[in-house]
Amino acid sequence: MGAILFPQRRGRGKSGGNYGEGLALDGSGYSCNVDIAIAGFERAVEDVDAVVRHLRGRPDVDQSRLAIAGVSRGGILAIAYAGMRPNTFKGAINFNGGWLGRGCASHEIVNPSIFERGASAGIPTLWLHGSYDQYYRIEHCRENFERFLLAGGQGTFIAASAGHALMFKPALWTNRVDQYIAALSKE
Q: What pLDDT sits at residue 3?
């Protein structure tokens, strides 16, 4: 029997704490400043570290069968985290992942540099992106994937006819995810 966990980072969903993943100092939203954005990413990594510590303390969790997935900021976080904490996960799935959207010119610096952190994981990854995403152009997503591969990452990139809400259109990705999970289970 398998289990799925949907943790929320601080200040997201109905979790406690304050949200602070790279917000602008004036309170206007996400900062386009590279240093602030990366500091926000590092804060999110701390939250995933807490989840992994919790999972490691559970005797009912098979540590050899863990996979990580995320949507949007969670998608880039899933890929990067797998490389930053090698030998933790068998797989990683990215749904429409990116840290900064195209409203920030610095997204061309921040997103690829974060995705490259995941390349050293040595695990197969699955990247699912909407071709009409309002935050991340599909060309940018493909470039991030190519940089990830050039850095040594492994993965499959799928472009679906959807926008940023791809996660809520399972008919577009369920078969691919099922195939991916089945392949992980055989390893």
A: 63
